[in-house]
Amino acid sequence: MRSRVLILLLFLNWACLVDFSAQVVKPDEKDEVIRVETQLVDVPIAVTNNSGVPLRGLKASNFVVYEDGKPQEIVDFSTTSEPFEVALLLDTSGSTRNDLQLIKRAAADFISSLRVGDRVALIAYNTDRNDGTAFASSEILSRLTDDRTALKAAVERVRTSNGTPYYDSLIQVAEKIFAQRPAEAFHGRRALVALTDGVDSTSAFDFALAKSELTDLGVISFFIKVDTSEFFEENLLGNCELAMKFSLAQVRRYYRTIAARPGMEKAANFCQLGDFERLAISRRLYELAETEMNELANTSGGKVFAAGDLSEARTAFKRVADEIGTKYTLGYSPSNNKKDGSYRKIRVEVKGLPVGTQVRSREGYTARSN
User: Fold this and answer.
1) pLDDT, position 260
2) Fold for domain 85-325?
């Protein structure tokens, strides 16, 4: 009898062990986790009535988005009340050097006018030296933060420069400020706000690369375009030793971007340029800058705000802050999931809204490639 009880107990103990072991999943026996990689395309949108007044309180159902003419399913939507991350770029070169305090006040006002929760990074130019040689550089004075006290201190550290590394600073925004994926609250809600004349003089990189990187990240680009052409031209003419000179990069850009005529004589240095050609180069560089700013703004869903001079910058900054505060963002996963590196056109329409409603949005993006 005793032996039977013992056998029964051993059997029950073995059964419990078998049952317990069946519930424990070894690491190599876990179900495989399957992840489907999708590309979410963010589309910032500004909606106004026929008088230009922003429309608030819209819903995802008010929008239809098309990619290359095909309707897409909206899977993400942010209202105008959601926060933004802003890279504020201050051009402190050229004629702006005499108006540094105006720039600082305008920047401080802009930061103060943003909403609670908006985060700002600050980038400006300065003059560095290497072995006694002065050169212009772009400096990050503050990373993204909503600490207004820290940002105010960063604005006070803004200095002037002896050149304009404009393209390099745009790339710096893409690769340093917005390098990391945004937190969920800022998904599709990142903006560049640049106070500049857009005329580059010292960059190692070019506009095409800057545009490509910012566009691929879905950054909305706003420009406060300060007209410095009159000041530049006034100091450009006459004695070549005393005149304000073009950089070598600017002269090369001029000869490269105009229709290079066969047999056209190219000056080797600034003093070989007559007044007529100096004016021609200056005007071409300013035309190019305006074209590039409009191109980047339109492609991203942003806008260019003109400021006749720096005294008008504060008003322009106010308009930019208002624009940021009235942006919607929608997201969709493209029905065309090919990773072919092709450019895809985006079009946004609205429904259920009054006739005359105006929509401005991102114009397109470049698909990933294998």
Assistant:
1) 55
2) Rossmann fold (3.40.50)
